[in-house]
Write a structure and sequence with these properties.
alpha/beta, eight-stranded mixed β-sheet, about 20% strand, Spore Coat Polysaccharide Biosynthesis Protein SpsA, Chain A
Length: about 200
């Protein structure tokens, strides 16, 4: 199989936000719906959404799309636990998977396609978009590293994977700051909305 799946992380508790950020409205839809839509408009073949906190309200949003979902019962242990959950629930035989954060609605389908294109051209095992020398999302991981994810340091997450196999990392320069933009606080969210008005 030559398929590439997306893994969207949407299991967090949104402690700093003070309310479930996946449900915040952005461009007329919830944050999570925006991310799922952007991914579905790209060349990604299918999507796995990792749910945890507030899953009862998020499941219906996922079900409105063609995406699948899994439940991370260990979501309180942090992001790496959700990454592991997502990868464990992917079908076998995939070519690669791309990791997205559920609070990054500014990542465009064009960026996703660019990462996939460069991956297919170079066959590098880890492909990361970069804006002004800062690494962002989505991070593409070839199947040869899927088993490595189980042994990563929770404090470092995917950064440690890229560090361990640095010779197999491809950075793609972009002019889109959205690859870095997430929303941890309500102030950040309101600021972004005000900029769009």
């Amino acid at each position: 199989m030559d398929k590439i799946w997306a893994v969207i992380l949407a299991a967090g508790e949104s402690k700093r936000m003070g309310s479930p950020k996946m449900l915040l409205l952005f461009n007329g839809r919830t944050m999570l719906e925006n991310v799922i839509s952007n991914v579905s408009c790209s060349h990604v073949d299918n999507t796995m959404v990792v749910l945890g906190a507030g899953r009862e309200k998020l499941e219906p949003l996922v079900n409105k799309s063609s995406a699948k979902y899994c439940y991370n019962e260990h979501y309180r242990e942090g992001m790496l636990s959700s990454i592991k959950c997502g990868f464990r629930n992917l079908p076998s035989g995939l070519k690669a998977a791309m990791v997205f954060q559920g609070d990054q609605p500014l990542i465009t389908p064009q960026i996703v396609d660019k990462v996939i294109e460069e991956y297919r051209l170079t066959n590098k095992g880890i492909v990361i978009p970069v804006y002004k020398k800062k690494r962002g999302h989505p991070i593409l991981i070839d199947r040869r590293y899927f088993s490595e994810i189980e042994f990563l340091d929770p404090a470092e997450g995917l950064r440690s994977l890229a560090h361990k196999f640095s010779d197999d990392v491809l950075e793609i320069e972009t002019d889109e700051p959205g690859i870095l933009r997430d929303f941890d606080t309500y102030e950040e969210y309101k600021k972004e909305l005000n900029q769009k008005m």
